[in-house]
Specification:
Blueprint (H helix, E strand, L loop, with lengths): L2 H15 L21 H14 L3 E6 L3 H11 L4 E4 L14 E4 L6 H6 L2 E4 L3 E3 L4 E4 L16 E7 L3 E2 L2 H4 L10 E3 L4 E3 L5 E3 L6 E8 L3
Parallel strand pairs: 1-12, 2-3, 2-4, 4-7, 5-8, 7-12
Antiparallel strand pairs: 5-6, 6-9, 10-11
């Protein structure tokens, strides 16, 4: 479209709407939560929905977290694990897997050669069984959670919210957000489910009560 044609079209639009009343403000009243106010019920709902998406869900307290993370990595035969900046060292204290620190020197080939990644999260949504990462400390860049075949994600119970409307005000829209609901999966025309095509084949989620 030429600049002249574009100008004529815009002029006609301005003429057509000249003098029209201002549009009323559209109310944005979202539905409230569909689960009880009990925080334990919210965490239980997240557990249920994550499992429904074929994530493997575990419960722990802060003191038992290092042993559980080590067991999950060893159980999957992970010999190397990617460590995003800011991940608490204690989480991997009992794992014998080789640490691969993320940084400018970590090439795509080296990342592809790692067996697993361990991260935290920004928050988790119970109603949808979704974990949200925003690249903050302990989460790393998006590629870290898409390339390795195993993702172990630690979710504190105080990071769990009931619904998406509750989650959005707590997230920074200027950050790159990754929303995860179970392991990566796709289906062909025959509806045969295949996991691990666009991301990790296995998602292990650890719900942690108390400080970590």
């Amino acid at each position: 479209m030429s600049q002249e044609s574009r100008g004529r079209i815009l002029a006609r639009i301005r003429s057509a709407v000249a003098g029209a009343p201002e549009a009323p403000e559209v109310p944005r009243a979202y539905l409230g939560r569909h689960v009880p106010d009990d925080p334990d019920a919210v965490v239980d709902l997240l557990h249920e929905n994550l499992a429904d998406y074929r994530a493997r869900v575990h419960r722990s307290d802060g003191s038992g977290l290092p042993a559980l993370v080590a067991r999950l990595l060893d159980g999957r035969g992970a010999r190397s694990v990617v460590v995003p900046p800011g991940l608490p060292e204690a989480w991997l204290a009992e794992s014998g897997a080789e640490r691969v620190a993320d940084g400018p020197g970590l090439t795509p080939a080296a990342l592809d050669g790692a067996d697993a990644v361990v991260t935290g999260c920004a928050l988790a949504v119970a109603e949808t069984g979704t974990i949200v990462l925003d690249g903050g400390p302990g989460q790393g860049r998006r590629a870290l959670t898409l390339v390795p075949d195993l993702h172990v994600c630690v979710v504190r119970e105080d990071q769990v919210v009931a619904s998406v409307p509750e989650a959005l005000p707590r997230l920074d829209p200027l950050r790159a957000l990754t929303w995860i609901s179970g392991p990566s999966a796709t289906s062909d025309i025959e509806l045969d489910r295949v996991e691990g095509v666009h991301g990790p084949r296995t998602l292990e989620v650890v719900l942690v009560r108390g400080p970590v």
